[in-house]
Amino acid sequence: MRALLVEDDPAIAEFVARGLREAGFAVDHAADGDAGLAATAAHAYDVAIVDLMLPKRDGLSLIEEMRRRGQPTPVLILSARRSVDDRVRGLQTGGDDYLTKPFAFAELLARVQALVRRATRAPEATTLTVADLSLDLLSRRVTRGGQALDALPPGARVGTSSRRRAAQLRARWPHLICVDVRGNVETRLRKVEDGECAAVVLAAAGLARLGRLDVVSAFLEPDVMLPAPGQGAIALQARGDDAATLAALHPLAHAATEIAVRAERALLAVLGAGCTLPIGVLGRVDGAEVHLRAAVFQPDGRRAIRVERAGPAIDPEAVGRAAGQALLAEGAAAMLAEVSA
């Protein structure tokens, strides 16, 4: 590792340089700001330690010019200036860390090593790849062999056992033919392998648990495919008078999930419907509020009633009831009665 030390005090410079060399660093020393800037242009450094009060060119000006030139070298500012304003200004100018004088060399070395680790750490992957399937974790775009897979040709048969999923598929892609499929995951996947279906719609979480993400061609986002009320939540039951069991289960509860599911179930209760009908709803907690998106679909996908509601997370049932009543006001009862008939 190569470090640049820009320090005009000979005693401090000698002390720091010696310690860094003992720690395995190759150290170049510059006694003024101009010499330090020239060194950064001539060599690539893993880290720079820069005093602020330098002759010829002060440390802030040096760091600012480094950043203007696009030099990414991590910079530890070393200065007798101790005020909050000085530290904020140093970091905002382009410094990566700030250490005030007097200092302990052990702390300086730890900060230098941390800067080097952060600078050399490989960036977190933003793409998940399995065989020729690629998922961009930021955009959620899925491709196989470099080709986008968010559409199927007219007349393509898509298998699903869910009326809710079929209605939403037809609403988004009316040119598709939805067919009923039954059986376990492998049975449904064989429908594609045997050519009976161009695709089948399955729960991504289930495929992940089974290690079968290799078969995924597209992930359907909630704006395309709303889940069923409470879908994905795990419920643990205990007797109401069993205080010991309830106390043992309490640490397992996930508050945000509980709030979202309570809102979703309240909506379902208002509609007086079951989970097999074409109703989609998704609750999400955002700070002190719970947000709810819900929709009721005609099975053929030609009509959908959609609502969104938000309210205090301390009363999620009220949010669910408000969303359910809004759906009823828009004619959801007649649509559901037609499906149930």
Write down the CATH topology of the largest domain. Answer: Rossmann fold
Q: Quick one: biggest sheet?
A: 5 strands, parallel
What distance separates the N and C termini?
75 Å
Q: Rough shape?
A: elongated
Structural class: alpha/beta
Portion in beta strands: 15-25%
- Under the CATH scheme, which architecture of the largest domain would be assigned? 3-Layer(aba) Sandwich
The CATH class of the largest domain:
Alpha Beta
Radius of gyration over C-alpha positions, nearest whole angstrom: 31 Å
Instruction: Encode the helix/strand succession as letters.
Output: EHEHEHEHEHEEEEEHEHEHHHEEEHH
What would CATH call the homologous superfamily of the largest domain? Response regulator
**How many separate structural domains?**
3
Q: What is the typical, i.e. mean, pLDDT?
A: 86
Number of helices: 12
Low-confidence stretches: none
Order of strands in the sheet with most strands = 2-1-3-4-5
Helical residues, percent: 25-40%
Question: Got a strand count?
Answer: 15
- Oligomeric state: single chain
